[in-house]
Amino acid sequence: MASNSEIRFLTPLSIDTGKQKKYCRFKKSGIKYIDYKDGDFLRRFLNEQGKILPRRITGTSLKFQRKVAQAVKRARHVAVLPYVTDLMK
Question: Which CATH architecture has domain 25-77?
Fold first, then answer.
């Protein structure tokens, strides 16, 4: 049996579900191209296991969520980001 120190659970993101409206950070900043070589920026859209976070959590628009997903997949392919990890952050 695993002890309590070995068991790790998914930690929920610190999202304030109050009256604040979600916004697309790409539209607000005027970003048109998402660089797949920028691993630190793309890590904001991954959870601890390396999975891509959904739109409903990040607030990204559909157009840019597709671009983020494509950039993450390209970054994984050229080994900028890992495919799977235990605790990335």
Answer: Irregular (4.10)
